Amino acid sequence: TFDTLPAGGKVPVIATFADQGDDLIRAAGTAGTLRGPDRLALLHRLKAHAESLQAPLRKSLQQQGVTDFQELWLVNALAFRATPAQVDAVAAWPEVASVTLNGTIHVSTTPPGVSPVVSPQATAATVPWNISAVHAPELWNKNITGQGVVVAILDSGADYANNPDLNAKWRQSGGWFDPYDPTKTTPYDTPDPTAPAGFGHGTAVLGVILGDSIGIAPGAKWIAAKIFHDDGTASNTDIGRAFQWLLDPDGDPTTYDAPDIVNGSWGLDEVNVCDTMFETDVQKLETLGIAVVFAAGNYGPGSSTSISPGNYPESLAVGAVDASNQVEYFSSRGPSACGSVPVYPQLVAPGVNIETYALGGGYLYADGTSFSAPEVTGVLALLRIAYPNTQMSTLEEAVERSATPLAPTPDNTYGNGLVNALAAYRLLDPNTPGTISVYGSLSFGSVPVGSSADRVLAITNVGAGPLNVGTVSAPAAPFSIAADACSGQTLLAKDTCDVTLRFSPTAHAASSASLTIASNDSAHPTTTVALSGTANTPPPAATLSAPASGATGVAVWAAARGHGMAARPAEQRARCAPRSHTTHTHATRT
């Protein structure tokens, strides 16, 4: 880019500072637990921190004629246009970690070659198959529809004017961010240039999340940021500004109006690349207790087809399956290009023939992981209203743990399996007891007197609900508890904790005792584990039976070999004459 610039030409760049305010975040409390006033207070501190660090650089650049600054306080970065020489000077600032090009990106949305089918009907049919597949209606029957939960989309917009349902569910206060035309204060959507008329990507995504009869969480509210320009492109800066807008949508630092969940049904256009441009944004949203769900991508069927930001460790990436729970050919597979992600995607959800809202009214059917991701977003909205005091990170963990397995073990095609709203609800329900699984007996075998041996006892929750482990009682001597990571703990489904038991015999004898474990397992409120072990003593010292100790003239056999000597036939080997020696009592014990 620099080589093609005319004299005095400038390029758009983003300078990111090394200090991300991590100390401020740590001092604020446990990650993911901050809400309301506590989160607002931290946001104020992060903004002030970024402004103070950026002020000297901003002043220096202003003196050089740079004026078009855009502050990205969430990631402590400053965007501007500068000459190559100015860029080199900024990169040399000790506080600046990196200077990157503020480029325009093409965003992946629908699968290549797949076009939405616009349906002319005015009302939805029966409950669509994908809604039933994720077991959302079972939660609706419990009056759990996501009521009061706020979901944000970063997308192409939303058809507020032509869709009465979306109109009614839009949260007007801080409900819209448009970096391209700030004069438009109400949401709108623009046709996808690669799709048939009547398809608006953001409108379709919102319908899957919260549409009446077609959405997972029809009681939820929504806000939106238009990150896609009408031509389907977006700049790094505008996406970054949308991320930080999420934390203070109305621009009033005295009000708390951040969303509970963010849906990103898009990805960057480089496959099997870990593009960390927005990783800090996602990290900080998750740290502040906001779930971030991304489409896994439409670059299958090959492996290693992940895309960013879905392949970040902090994102919840969602792939696509059909009505037979078979992975769709276009659904991206792992492993994640970013590493440190056990499986990619983490979950799958229906992603073919998904009924949703069309642009301008009516309905359409769409394919793609763009429409799998909002189903998981909707499930999280249901769980948020069902368990309003539970950390969002725990809800995210629950949807992974409770997913219906579609492979023998979690893998890089199906992840942990098909999202299951009812199973996740039961997993988190304190009134649904867990089921304890533990060895019925534990043997230490034979242990020498005066020494000790340890054995690890694993306690596992094999039930649907949380298992609350009470007291693990200490057994009678010579048994004891060496380490206890279970007492007072809550184990979600498939969780395991360990108790280390010790056997320390002091006398030669067989020993036994019992260990008792209290839990909320209604069938086994008290579980007993039998312990056993035997103490042994060292064997007596070995004695020499023959020849007698002190004997002399004892014959021994020997064979000799020397350098340069010819080998002799075996029958010519001579028996050595006995040599006088004394045999002492000494033996090697085995």
Short recap of the structure:
This protein has 590 residues and is of the alpha/beta class.
Name the descriptors.
590 residues; alpha/beta; five-stranded mixed beta sheet; 12 helices; 20% helix; 23% strand; disordered C terminus
Question: Could you characterize what this model shows?
Answer:
The protein is an alpha/beta fold. The protein has 12 helices and 25 strands. It has helices at 22-28, 36-63, 84-91, 129-133, 136-140, 164-169, 201-210, 236-245, 279-287, 373-386, 392-401, 421-428; strands at residues 11-17, 70-72, 77-82, 96-101, 104-106, 117-119, 150-155, 176-177, 221-226, 233-235, 261-264, 291-295, 316-321, 347-350, 354-357, 363-366, 436-437, 441-448, 453-461, 467-472, 479-484, 490-491, 496-503, 510-519, 526-536. The chain has a 7-stranded parallel beta sheet with strand order 8-9-7-11-12-13-14, sandwiched between helices. The protein has a 5-stranded mixed beta sheet with strand order 18-25-24-20-22, with no helix packed on it. Helix 10 crosses helix 11. The longest helix is centred in the N-terminal third of the chain and has 28 residues, at 36-63. It is globular, with a radius of gyration of 34 Å. The model is unreliable at 560-590 (pLDDT under 50).
Q: Could you give the topology of this structure?
A:
Elements: E1 11-17, H1 22-28, H2 36-63, E2 70-72, E3 77-82, H3 84-91, E4 96-101, E5 104-106, E6 117-119, H4 129-133, H5 136-140, E7 150-155, H6 164-169, E8 176-177, H7 201-210, E9 221-226, E10 233-235, H8 236-245, E11 261-264, H9 279-287, E12 291-295, E13 316-321, E14 347-350, E15 354-357, E16 363-366, H10 373-386, H11 392-401, H12 421-428, E17 436-437, E18 441-448, E19 453-461, E20 467-472, E21 479-484, E22 490-491, E23 496-503, E24 510-519, E25 526-536
Parallel strand pairs: 7-9, 7-11, 8-9, 11-12, 12-13, 13-14, 18-25
Antiparallel strand pairs: 1-3, 1-4, 2-3, 5-10, 6-16, 15-16, 17-19, 19-23, 20-22, 20-24, 21-23, 24-25
